[in-house]
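Format notes (please read before filing issues)

Several people have asked whether sequences and structure tokens are stored in separate files. They are not. Every record keeps both together, in the order shown below: the sequence lines, then the token lines. Line labels are part of the format and must not be stripped during preprocessing.
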Amino acid sequence: MALETINLNDVSLDELVKMDLTERFINELNPKRRLEFCISKLKNQDGLSSISEREDALIMLGELYYKLHKNQDGFELSAKEKQDICNQVRDGFDWAMDNEPSCVPHHEICYQISQRDIRELIPKMAQIAVNHKSEVSRHEYVECLANIMAWPELESILPAMLKDSSEDVRETAKYCEDRLRRYRNEPPLGVVDIF
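Then the structure lines:
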């Protein structure tokens, strides 16, 4: 049966997570089902979620957070329901920072946190920047801290980042140090609507 012919919101979550849904079909899910589906794919509890499926889940969670947080969603949800979903998205990102084994989704985590201005996760980002086993992830987290102007956290980790074992991470730390010097007295930009 072609996906176009069924209402995915009527499919059980157990069956839904077995499907290889692309963003087009994930967007057809109502907000609560989309959240459940994406969190399930992200946590990969069945062991079947590929890296690109987990990356899609992060992207879709970030877009859902943005739409609900900015009230640009058109969904018939109360303010409390929207806030609950946003909190669960944030908790999903928090979980992924600790548990995602691949560096590729960590790049997306940083992007989504910075683009959605989820500042509650900044302390965790600083910790991961210093301690993650992947140099790609360390690079992404420290760069993200500079880009979202998280100056206290960045200042606390820069000495360690400038001595990192990876030349690429050290180069990123130098970029962060320069950005800190140039932007220290500027207010954080927050989410910028460019369209």
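For reference, the curators noted about this record: The domain at 121-184 is CATH 1.25.10 (Leucine-rich Repeat Variant). The radius of gyration is 18 Å.
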